[in-house]
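Recap from last week: sequence in, structure out.
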Amino acid sequence: MKLMYISQGNIPSKWAHTFQAMKMADAFARQVDALSMVTGGGLLTSKPNQVDCFEWYGVGNHFSIVRLPVWWRLDEPLFDGWKYPRFDRIAALYARAQSPDIVYTRSANAGRLCVKLGLDTIIEFHMGGERSELFHIEAIKDNAHLLGVVTISEELKELYSQAGISPDKIFVWPDAVDIDAFDRLPEKESLRKPLGIARDAFVATYCGHLYSDRGIEEILDCAGTLQNVQFFLVGGWEKDIEKRKEEARHLTNVHFKGFVSHQHVPEYLLASDVLLMPYSSRCENVVWMSPLKLFEYMTSGCPIVATDLPALRKHLENGRNALLVKPDDPGELADAIKTLMKDRIYAGQLAEAARKDVSPYTWNNRARAILSRFIQKNN
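Predicted C-alpha cells:
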C-alpha cells in the first residue's frame, strides 16, 4: 500500500503540529509499502537543505519528503507560518497525479479537496472552538472517499458528531511518544555536563512554547521563591523568549535554552529532577487538548507537576503518577516542587507509575490502530 501524508505545507518549522505529523509519518512508514510526506518549498526554495528534517524531528530516514513549489522562502531555514492555504490545492492536485492508495492529512482543506478529487482520504483534525475549520469536513461528511476522521479526545468526537459527521467515521486516539528515544540515552549524570547543568543541581524543567496560557508566569514566580532550584525553559519563539527573559532579568536561577531539535528534547527531560506542565485555566483547549509533552514527560522517568485540568486528568492522577495543583497558583506549584525535593523516593514512585501508564501510547501503536480501523474496515 502507498500512503501519501499531506502536511499543512510548513515542514520544517517549530509548530507542534509539524512534530506530530512527522512522528506519524515515521510510524506509518513502518506499516505500509511506501510513504511520501508532501510539504512546501520546492524549486523556489533558495536554500532547501539548510535543515535536515529527519534529524530536526528525530525520525528515521525511511520515507521520502516531497516539496511542492508554492512560494519563495528566501534564506529562512524554518517556516514560521502556522499553515499555508495556497499549498492545499496544489498538494491535492499532486496527490491526484500520483494516485496513492490512501491520503492522510492534518489539513482539513487539503483533505476536502482530495476527497472531491476521488481520493480515499483520512483527515486528522484536532480543532474546536471559533478557530475550527470543521466546515471543510462537513462539506464531505457523506462522501465515500472520506474514510474517516482521527482526533485526540472524546470531547472533539462529540463536537464533530453534532456537526453531522457519523460517529462510525471518527476515531479517537490521543497523541503518543517515541519510547525508544528515551531508552537509548545514558543516565542523568552523563547527560548534565553536555547540557550545561551542574551535577548536584535540583532542576525543574518546562518544555514547550512560552505563551501566556502555559503557566510561564507561575514558573517565574516559583523561581523567585525557590532560589535553590534551577529552572530550565526549553523552547519558544524568539520574540517570546526575549519577552520572558526581560521578565526574569532579576532571576539568576532561570535558564532559557531556546528551541532545540526534537531529537534532543529527551536529553533535557531525563537530565531533570521534576518536569513542569502548569497550563493556565485560560488555555482555550483545556478540555480536549493532548499535549505532546505530556506523553514525553510521562516517559522520562522524572516526576511531573501539572495543573489540575480536565484534559490532563485523563492521563495524570494526583498522588499516583503525578502531582496536580490548582491552575494559576504559583504557591501550590512551589509547594509541589518542594515536596518532590524533600521526598525523592515518593518522586521516583510517581515517575515509575507514569512511565508504566504511558507505555501503550507509542506512535507505532497509534499508526497501526488508525490503519486497522479505517483501511481494513473499508476493504
